[in-house]
Amino acid sequence: MNTKFKERLLIMASLTVILGNSPLLSEAQDTSGIYHEEYRPQVHFSPKAHWVNDPNGMVYFKGTYHLFFQDYPKGTTWGPMHWGHAISKDLMHWKELPIALYPDSLGYIFSGSAVIDSNNTSGFGKNGKIPLVAIFTHHDPQLEKAGKENYQNESLAYSLDDGYTWTKYAGNPVLKNPGLRDFRDPKVMWYVKGKKWIMTLATKDHITFYSSPDLKNWKKESEFGKDLGAHGGVWECPDLFPLKLNEKTYWVLIVNLNPGGPNGGSATQYFIGDFDGTTFSPNDGKTRWLDYGTDEYAGVTWNNTGNRRIFLGWMSNWQYANQVPTKGWRNAMTIPRELTLFKEKDGLYVRSLPVKEINAIELKKPQDHRPELPKALPGQYLIKLKTKRLADYSIILSNSANEKLIIGFDKVKDQYFIDRTKSGRTDFSGNFPSIAYAPRLSDVNNSEMLLLVDRSSVELFADDGRTVMTSIVFPAKPYNHIDLKLVKIIQLIPLYGIW
Ligand code: FRU
Questions:
Q1: How far, in Å, from the CA of 330 to the mean position of ligand 1?
Q2: How far is CA 47 from CA 175, 223, 386, in A?
Q3: CB atoms within 10 A of CB 290
Q4: In the chain, what are the domain boundaries?
Q5: Pair 47, 94: CB distance under 8 Å
Q6: How far apart are CA 200 and CA 271, in angstroms?
Q7: Atom from ligand 1 closest to the CA of residue 266
Q8: Residue 55 Cα, ligand 1 centroid: separation in angstroms?
Q9: What are phi and psi of 135, to 5 degrees?
Q10: Which atom of ligand 1 is nearest to the CA of 110?
C-alpha cells in the first residue's frame, strides 16, 4: 500500500469517527418545534414561517445588523410582498421582529435598501433623532393587471427608533415610472465626494443611476449596461459600492439577473470599474459571476459597515423556489460573506468568504459546548481542505439513505462542480437534479477550500473564496459521512445551531 493511499484511508477512518460516533453529531435529531423541521437550515437565516425571497434594506446601526426581506406572511409561496424584519448582533444569530412594511394603496412592497440619514437631509429627523430611511419599490398589481406599463415606482419609509418601526412617507412615490415595465429594486448610498445620494436602479436590461440631495427629489444621472454583461433575463436587485485594493479604490456594480445564470435560472453578475458620481465605467467587458452555483440570488450588501463589505444572498432560484419540499416555511439566505478584491492575469475579481463571525459558532471540542445554546444537530459543519491544482478530486457527502452530494474538481475542464443528481429529493422540479459547473479563476497551487454544509445547503468557497458555488439539497437525513478522493482535510468543524 503506498503511503499516500494509507494517509487517505487514515483521514477517512478518522472522519467516520468524527461524524458517526460523536454524540454531538449523532443522527438522533430534535425534530420537535420550529426551526427543527425537516430540511431546516441550522446556521442560516430562514423565516420562522411562510415564504421568503430577496434580502432587503440591509443596514448596520448602533451595533445591530438589520435584515429586511421579501416576505409573504400568509403562505409558503410568493404572494403580495411585505418587508419582514430580523436583527442580529453577530450576523449569525437572528431574531425575527414584527413585519416592518405592509402593502398599501400604492401596491406591494418590493425590494429596496435602507440608509442612515446622519445629516437629516430628508428632514424626517425630529428632536435630534437620526432617521433611517428605506427606499423600496411600490409594485401596483392592479395597474399591472390593467396592462399599464408604469406599475413600479420608488417610495420611502422612515424610522425614528433606530430601525425598529417604520412610517411610510406621505409624498410617495418619490421617483415615478417613466413607462418601463421593469423599474425596481433601488439601492441607495451616500456618495461622499459629491455629497449626494446615489440610487442604483434596475431598469429592465440596464442600470439607471439617479442622484438626490434629500432622498425625495431624484435626477437621472446615466445609464449603464445595455450592451454589456449577461442578458439572458431581466436585470434586478443591483448594488454599487467602493472596494479598495492596495490603497486604490475601485467600484463594484452588482447586477442580479433572472434567468440567464451560468448554470440556469437566477444568478449574480458583477462589474468592476470606476464611478464618478454620474457614470459607471467598467474596466473591461467581461461577465463575472459572484457565485456560480444554482442557489444564490438577489444578493446585495449591508450599508454602513465601514471598511467591511458584507454580502447576503437569497439561497434559492426562481426556477423552483416555489416548489422546494419544505413545510411551514420556504427558502433561506446564504451565509453572510465578506467581499474583497483580488487580481488575476486578466483583471480584478471579487473574492467572497464567510464572515469571520462564523468562528463564534464553531463547536471545537465537546468541552466548549456552551450550555445556553441548543445541542448541535447533525448536519451543520465546516470543512477546510487543502487542494492541489492538477488532480481530479472530489468530496462525497452521503447519508444512510444512500443519498450523496458530490463536490469536486475536473482538471481537464479546469472546473469545479457540484453534482446533486442523487442528493435526495429532486423530483419537485425538472430543473433541480443538475450538475453545476464553475471555472477555476485562480492559478495558485495548494490553495484552501472551504465547504459549509447545513442540512439542506452546501456553499463551496474554492481557492480561498475565488470561485464560489452555492447549492441547496433535500436529503432524507443530513449528510453525516464523507469520502475524499485526492484531497486532504485540514479541519472538520461542527457548528452550533443558531436557533
Ligand atoms: C428578485 C425580485 C425583485 C423584486 C422582488 C419581488 O427576486 O423579482 O426584482 O423586487 O423579487 O418579490
A1: 16
A2: 31, 36, 35
A3: 23
A4: 3-28+356-494, 50-332
A5: no
A6: 13
A7: 7
A8: 10
A9: -120, 115
A10: 10
| 295-345 residue pLDDT tens | 999 999 999 999 999 999 999 999 999 999 999 999 999 999 999 999 999
> Distance between CA atoms of 72 and 51, rounded to whole angstroms?
5
SS3 call for 96: strand
With beta carbons less than 8 A apart as the criterion, state whether 387 and 464 touch. no
Flag whether pLDDT at 23 surpasses 60: no
Q: How far is the CA of 284 from the centre of ligand 1 (A)?
A: 28
Using CB atoms within 10 A of its CB, is residue 127 exposed (0-12), middle (13-18) or buried (19+)?
Answer: exposed
By DSSP bridging, strand 95-101 and strand 82-88 are antiparallel
C-alpha cell at 226: 445595455
- Please state the atom number of ligand 1 nearest to the C-alpha of residue 185: 10
The Cβ of residue 445 has, within 10 Å, a number of other Cβ atoms equal to: 9
- Is-same-fold flag (3-28+356-494; 50-332)? no
Q: Which three cell numbers stand for residue 394?
A: 472530489
Query: Band of the pLDDT at 365, cuts 50, 70, 90?
Result: low
In the structure, which protein residues have their CB atom closer than 6 angstroms to any atom of ligand 1? 53-54, 70, 81, 110-111, 137, 184-185, 236-237, 298
Q: What CATH number has the domain spanning 3-28+356-494?
A: 2.60.120.560
- Residue of minimum CA distance from atom 8 in ligand 1: 236
CA of 106 to the centre of ligand 1 (A): 17
In whole angstroms, what is the distance from residue 409 CA to residue 386 CA?
Answer: 13
- pLDDT for 32 equals 62
Q: Record the cell numbers describing residue 461, joined without a space.
A: 468557497
Confidence of residue 234 (pLDDT cuts 50, 70, 90): very high
- Concatenated DSSP letters for 294-313? SS-EEEEE-BS-TT--EEEE
> Is residue 349 very low, low, confident or very high in pLDDT (cuts 50, 70, 90)?
very high
Count how many residues are written for the chain.
499
**Sequence letter at residue 388:** K
Residue among 108, 151, 182, 185 to mutate when testing ligand 1 (max atoms within 8 A of CB): 185
Query: CATH: 3.90.550.10, 1.10.10.60, 3.40.190.10, 2.115.10.20. Which one for 50-332?
Result: 2.115.10.20
What's the Cα-to-Cα distance from 207 to each of 36, 48, 197, 210, 269, rounded to whole Å? Answer: 41, 34, 16, 10, 13
List, by residue number, the catalytic residues. Answer: 54
Report which residue type is found at 239. D
- State pLDDT tens for residues 429-469: 999 999 999 999 988 877 899 999 999 999 999 999 999 99
Q: What is the pLDDT of residues 24-64, one digit of tens each?
A: 333 334 456 889 999 999 999 999 999 999 999 999 999 99
pLDDT digits (tens, 9 = 90+) for 282-291: 999 999 999 9
- In percent, the amount of the chain with pLDDT more than 90 equals 80
3-state helix/strand/coil string of 96-109: EEEEEECCECCEEE
